[in-house]
Amino acid sequence: MSLITSLISAAEETAHTELPMSPFGYAGIAVAAFVALGVVVWSYRDVANRHSDKVGAAHDDHTPGH
Asked: What keyword terms does UniProt attach to this protein (predicted)?
């Protein structure tokens, strides 16, 4: 008996383990995680424009020719 054949027969003999919940439950968790991360990213929208006065004031003394 070759190694591959013995591995296949050993894999067939192992017990099948069921998932603790349905695949739709895992999909729901993934969707909820992506939505939560999307809310975090969405909350940082337009931050650069809100603080543009600070950036402009800090770079006013710099001239592009030096």
From this structure: Membrane, Transmembrane, Transmembrane helix
Q: Provide DSSP, the chain.
A: --HHHHHHHHHHHSPPPPPSS-HHHHHHHHHHHHHHHHHHHHHTTTHHHHTHHHHHHHTTT--TT-
- What are the tens digits of pLDDT across the range 20-62? 999 999 999 999 999 999 999 999 887 777 766 665 555 556 6
Measured CA to CA, the distance from residue 59 to residue 5 in angstroms comes to 71
Max CA separation in the chain (angstroms): 80
Q: Is residue 58 part of a domain?
A: no
State phi, psi for 43 to the nearest 5 degrees: -70, -20
Residue 42 domain boundaries: 21-46
